[in-house]
Structure formats: C-alpha cells, structure tokens
Amino acid sequence: MDQARSTISKIFNGEPHSYTRFNLTQNMEGDNSQVEMKLSSDMDEETGGNGVGEHLNHNSNRKPYVAQKLGRTPKNLCFMAVATLLIFIIGYLIGYLVHRKKDLAPTCAASTVIFDNVADFETGAAPLMNWNKVKELLAEQVSADKFDSVFREFSSDNHRAGSLSDEVLGQNVVKRFREYGMNTWTDEHFVKVQDPPASGSNSFSYKGKQERPTGFLSYSANGTITDAILYAFYGEEKDLRLLKGHNVNMTGRVMLVRTGRISFAEKVANAAKMGASAVLIYPDPSKSSIGGSTQLYGHVHLGSGDPYTPGFPSFNHTQFPPVQSSGLPQILAQTITLDMANSILRQLGGANAPEEWGSPNKLGDDSDAITLGVNNVLSEKKIVNVFGVIKGFVDADRYVVIGAQRDAWGPGFAASTVGTSVLVELARSISDMVKNGGFKPRRSIVFASWSAGEYGSVGATEWLEGYLSSLSMKAFSYINLDGVVTGQKYLKVAASPLLHSLVQSTLKEVNSPNKAGSLFSEFAKDDMESNVLEPLKLDNAAYPFLAFSGIPSVSFRFTSDNSDYLYFGTMLDTREKLDVATGDKVPQLAEAATRVAGHMVLRLVHDHLLRMDVEQYNKIILNRVGQINKKVNSVLRLQPQLLPKTLTMQWLRSAYGSYSRASSQLAADIQNSNMEDIEMCRTLNDRIMTVERNFLSPYVSPRESPFRHILLGSGPHTLQALYGHLEALGMDHPEADADLFRSQFALATWTIQGCANSLAGDVWSLDNEI
Questions:
Q1: Which of 464, 522, 597, 566 is nearest to 142 (CA)?
Q2: Which of 52, 70, 47 is nearest to 15 (CA)?
Q3: Phi and psi angles of residue 693, each rounded to the nearest 5 degrees, phi first
Q4: For 161, what's the count of Cα atoms within 13 Å in the CB-facing half-sphere?
Q5: d(CA 118, CA 108)
Q6: pLDDT tens sequence across 708-757
Q7: Could you tell me if 474 and 397 are in contact, meaning their C-beta atoms sit under 8 angstroms apart?
Q8: Roughly what angle, to the nearest 10 degrees, separates helices 131-141 and 418-436?
Q9: Regarding beta strands 443-450 and 395-405, do their DSSP bridges make them parallel or antiparallel, or are they unpaired?
Q10: Where would I find the Transferrin receptor-like dimerisation domain in this sequence (predicted)?
C-alpha cells in the first residue's frame, strides 16, 4: 500500500508539465466505481532534450490531434504505456478500497454468535456509542458504597399496599426521578384486597386446643368448617397423585402442607381439585431457622392482579359488572406457625406417610377432626404506581420497562427495599450517562415502582390491563427487580427464551462480586441452561408481562439455595437477616444486580436490532410437538376408540415447520440488511416483537384464562395441557373429553401457524411453504 500511495502521489504531483483530474462516483448500490481521468502532457507541448519542455502559447498554431498522433516519437509511446499502466493500477486500488469498505459495513445481527460481534455504526439519527464505552460509563456510575444511604431512604417497618408508608415511599421515588431530570407520572387504581378480620386473627381448634394465628392468606374463602386433617407433604400434584395411588380419600379433608416448591395459590388449587375443604400451610421444617412462632403472610389467588376485575383495569369498580376471577379459591386457606403444625403432626393417627416423602409423619384419619374459621375482610384500597422515563433518540415510542415492587407485608427488606434501591440507582446512573456522558439511547427506558405486589403483582397487572392495546406494540421487554438479592451461592434467571442469548452475553460481561472472573464463569460453568436458568413461575412479577401481555420478560436473583427466600412473607425480612444470608455482602450483591440489569437494559436500547433470538423457540416447540405426537400415536395404537381415525399430527408438525422456516428466514433477512436504513431496522424489530405476542392464544378469554401464552402460560389452551388431556384420555379419566381435545388441538395448531405467518413478514411475502 505504501508503494501504491507513492505511485498515486507521483501522479498527483508528477512531472511539471502534466496534470491529472479525477472524478470518482459511486452508484446507489455501491457496487461499481467509475474513475474518469484526463492526462495532459507533452502531447500538447514541445519538449527539450532533457525532457523539460517549454510552455507554448496555447493560442498559437497547434497541430491537429491526428497530426500529433501521427507524429509521436518512441519516447512518447513509452510514456503513454506507463501512464496507461498507472491508470489501471489506480482504478484497481480505488475499486478495492470501495468494495472493502462495503464488506466491512456492519449488518444487523441474527443470533447469539453474530450478536457478540456487532460493529459500532452511526446512522446519523443518533450517534452510536462504542459498546465498551457504554460499559465504562455504567461502571463509573455504579458503586456498592452508594447503596447504604439508598437502602435507608427506602426502608420502612410497615408499608403494606395502600398504606400511608407505601404512599410516602412512592413520593420518594418520584422525587428521585425528578432530581435526575426524568419525566414522571403516576397511575392510580382502586383494588379489592383481603385483610385480616377486625379481631386481628383467624382461628382453629384441634384436640380441644384453640389457636389464633395472626398470619393470613388474602383471597381465601370465608367460613367455618370441621373436617379431618390429611397430611399432604408439599401439596404438589405429584404428592396428591401419590396419595390417590395409595387409595387415600381426600374429599372433604383439611390438607396440612408445608411451604416451598410451588406457590400458596397452587397448593390450594391442587387441594381443591381433589375435593379438599380447606388447606393449612406451615413453614417448611427443613428451614428450621425461621423459628417456631414465625407467622406467614401471602395470598391464594391463582392469577395476578385484582381478582374482582379480571381482564380489565380497576380504575373505577362502578363501571364494570360484578365478576370474579376464576383463580379465586372456593375453599378455606390459612397459615399456621411451625410450632402449631408440629403439635398437630405429633397427634395424627392413621397410616404412615409414603416412603417417597422421607417423612416420619402419619397421614391422619377420620378421628383427627379440626375446626377452622376464616373471616378475612374484603376492602377497597387506592394504590399508586410511579413511573419515570428516559426517552430514546431514534425510536422513542419503543421502550423497555424495568420495575420493582414497593410494598411489603412487614419490613420487606429483601422483598422490596433492595429492588427499589436498585431501580432508583439504575435510573440515576443511566440519566447521568445521557446528560453528562454523551450516551444516546435509541429507544426509551421506563422505570416503574409498583404497589400491591404482595397481593399478587396487582399494581403491575392492573397497569398492563389498562394499557394493553398500546403496550403490546411498544413495550418490547420487561426486567423484574423483585427479590434480586437473597443470598450469594447461586445466580438464577427466569426469562423468555427470546432473551436467553442476551442473558448469556450479559453474564459474560459482568464481573462476579464473590471472586475474580465473570458471573458466567462462576455460576453458569459453561452450562447456563442447567446451572442458571429456571422456569418463570406464576408468582413472579414478570410472569403476567410474558404470559398475559406477550412482552418478553426476565427476572433474576442471587440466592442461597434453589428455593424462595426463607423470610419472604414474614416480619423477619430485615437487613440483619439478609446480611446473614449474604455474608454481609448486601451492597456488593446489589451493585452486581444493578450491573446485570443495567447491561441488559442498555443493550436493548443501544443496538440497532433488539437482542432477541427468535430461533430459541424452535427447540421448545419441537419438544412439545414431539411429546404430543408420541402420546397420540400411543392412544391410537392401544385405545383407538378414544380418538377418531381421521386425527392426524400432520398440521401441527407443519405449523412447527412453518415457524422454523420463518425464524430462519428472519435471520437471513437480518444478515442481508444494512443498519444505515433506519426504517428497515425498525421493520425487522417489529417482526421480532410480534413473536411473543402471537404466542398468546386469540381463542380464549383473558377473563377465564388470562395467561394465554400457549407455550409458557397456563390453562387448557397450552400445549402442555394438550399433553395432559391425552394422558387423561389414556387413563379413561371421567373428565376427559375427546371433542374438547380436538378443538384445543386445532386452535393451538393455528396459533403456532399464525405466529409463523406474522414472523415471515408481509402477506405478499408468504408462500405455500410458510
């Protein structure tokens, strides 16, 4: 190249009596480069013996061009040959440089591998800061030393939803957001919740001894019953199936179950399916450090949001007809202390518990009667959600939402204080990066502080219900900060499959607070799926965003074990308890959590394309279709009378194939796109955003089945439910209905096909293969 530059320089500054004029143009596609050159030399001049010519008067008698050509000397011909060669070399070099520039121009990324090598490029609409510079700016902002003062500001001994303390904390969040120069607003809802009775407690009586636990379960049915106790381990479906296999009668029994593994609401729903009359829930004895007298608080609504306005927002109850969520239990539910439970278990008779449980307890028999009275009070409360926004510079109407619950049953340090503090610190950090660091996010960031999270993500769900029509096409992701620090031994992440690649790249970039190296090397150990990822559960605040609204969501937590934090839902959720659980590393872990959330949110608003890998769903759909296919073939072979001979798996397999091809085609479209085209990238992002939303079944009512996602939701419309329906048919279960199965089968098939069609692009882009 140095020789080339030297040659070009000689031409530009060549012999005193020659000049060169360049005119370089490039066509719109950048495919061809044209070079127009004109050389003037001795052809128009007289030359001396030393090669230095003397200028002639251009107005003098000049020989015609033909005469010049006929009169050329061998020296002139040699010069012409050299000039022609140089012209060729220059043209070649210019063409090479132009095409090399085009080849190096960044293209939109398609999958995890390409995401890691996205080049920085400016469109002119908003300067794209180098990603390493973005990480440096965030690192400068976030520090463990800053968290203690923030913890103190957002701590309160009692801030239940709708209380004065809850409102004051909300005002503090608004004040902080405004200090950071953010636009703020609030969102009020009037929701119905259950509180303890006026006496302060419910009661039960067993073997002549009455107890009055002060803990309670909101949304329990009210009343008084007297029935025999049945010990049912954790109350999971598999526990109850095991009891049924041992011919244990569960109808009209009061099930005694321990906390853990599944939510309170799921325990009660499982018991109700078996005909139980009530459920008593006590602390898991394997977590004995909780203490024998610790009271438990929670809710038993199998859903989220206000159960008295299912599917629509609770802005004003008077505008809607009286209705209840299908997730409200029809049986009584109450928490008791570990000491109360142990007293009951010691006196139970009947058969031994199944060996599989590893428990020495008896199951109880008909003589072990207990009287339980629940008289919770239904009341209406005003709750306030608080918001702040950092607006994007290109696609301001597209935004990622990051939120944390603000309320708690008691002190709620791990449940709400840490998450709210991380939220506020992240808002401060990114705001300062924009104001003083030169960072310009392409898309907007909405920061949300929710109320009534302890009653089942009520504040967040009511917001989703109130603005679903606008959120569905504009909110492209949700990051949940609830319970982000409860220990330090493990890191667990529950997320939409679309975000798994983003999670992986984030963990590789964020350093561990425990030892040298990244979070990925410490916790994932090269197998993120087994060591880090976990299912997104019903009681997670991110769940309604994903399964109800179709917004890709992620929730993560540093924890001491794979179960929930021991002190959630108790009055012992304090800073002191969390210090013990984390080895006095709460600020350091809060800093790490802020970096994890910060890296994810900044990636989502920094890159030209959303970091979502639509091909991640291929494996999930294939596994579900494979399970159903295997079960259908088994039923048709062993019990052909249960299903019509015309039933075929062809169309479900075809729908999977359509999605697989559409996701691959999108990846190809992305790789062939140029990020200079803002509108094209916006169109590609819109196609990516439709995936999660189009997995919501359009054939079920949000009131009856709010979590409509056919792969990650819950209800009879899901692929998992289809498989369960086939199992029920195979076991000749009395509630199994072949016609219902066929209907749900057809609707699920078309939901997948519809998602594939939308992902493929415009209707004129579809063909018979899609």
A1: 597
A2: 52
A3: -65, -35
A4: 32
A5: 8
A6: 999 999 999 999 999 988 888 776 666 667 888 889 999 999 999 999 99
A7: yes
A8: 120
A9: parallel
A10: 648-759
